[in-house]
Specification:
Number of strands: 7
Radius of gyration: 18 Å
Strand content: 5-15%
Distance between the termini: 29 Å
Largest sheet: 7 strands, parallel
Strand order of the largest sheet: 3-2-1-4-5-6-7
Length: 264
């Protein structure tokens, strides 16, 4: 299927590895020019160079990278100095640490909200009017399945990402919806990434079991009996960015192998 987005420009955050990289790869293979952003310069450079050398990418597709912390004003300024206008924006920031809510002070909450709620809002604010003026735009916020099924040790993430979900529910249905701009949230369940392993570290310490044992137990609790891959996550993201998804906006798209047990 031709997704109809060749030649567009995309900003992909958290793109050096994991789900962000999966999204960048999928977009580049559809002929989208990509600006990849992440904090770790070495890992980002390596990923960008590998993607630029990918024989599956379209001819003439540009792959650029900016090592910056997108959750800061300075980081966003650096990114938009490279390019101001984007047709596609994939927001993605590392989730806050796990733990007990009794141990989190105000600074911990502010940091979580700043990274996982306010940063996506700032990126949306900086780009959607330009998208609307050009008649096409896609914003995909990578959030978490915990928005639908909260996990107690992920309280910081539950709160911040739920706040973003509420904002998107309103903003996506504003006047920009009639201008060819869609805003959706993509909710990953258990995907085989470094973040997943970090989340399991608490269980490892608590139970004394090995990481492999803990991960195997989680895997067996997923109806699909496996973890997702960044490649398939990227494919979902690319479709939501396509011309074929123009009637999908304000939605929370859950990708979790059937783990969420609810009807709605």
């Amino acid at each position: 299927m031709d997704l109809g987005i060749a030649g567009k420009w995309a900003l992909v955050c958290g793109a050096s590895k994991g789900l962000g990289l999966g999204c960048a790869q999928a977009l580049v293979r559809e002929g989208v020019n990509v600006v990849m952003v992440a904090r770790g310069a070495d890992a980002l450079r390596a990923s960008a160079e590998a993607l630029a050398a990918d024989t599956a990418r379209g001819a003439g597709v540009s792959v650029q990278f900016v090592a910056a912390d997108i959750t800061t004003v300075e980081g966003r300024t650096t990114v938009f100095a490279v390019r101001k206008d984007f047709d596609i924006v994939i927001t993605n920031a590392g989730g806050p640490p796990t733990g007990d809510f009794r141990d989190w002070d105000r600074d911990a909450w502010i940091k979580a909200v700043d990274a996982n709620m306010l940063t996506p809002i700032e990126l949306i604010k900086a780009t959607v009017d330009g998208m609307a003026a050009r008649g096409f735009g896609r914003v995909i916020n990578i959030t978490s399945s915990a928005v639908k099924a909260p996990i107690d040790i992920l309280g910081l993430s539950n709160g911040a990402r739920s706040g973003l979900t509420g904002f998107v529910a309103g903003a996506s249905r504003s006047k920009i919806a009639a201008s060819g701009v869609t805003i959706n949230n993509l909710l990953p369940g258990a995907f085989d990434t470094d973040r997943l392993k970090a989340t399991f570290s608490g269980a490892v310490q608590k139970t004394g079991q090995s990481l492999d044992v803990v991960m195997d137990a989680r895997r067996k609790g997923i109806p699909a009996q496996r973890f997702g891959t960044p490649d398939e996550f990227g494919a979902i993201c690319a479709f939501l960015c396509s011309v074929h998804a123009s009637y999908i906006t304000g939605q929370n798209v859950l990708a979790d192998g059937g783990a969420y047990p609810g009807t709605f």
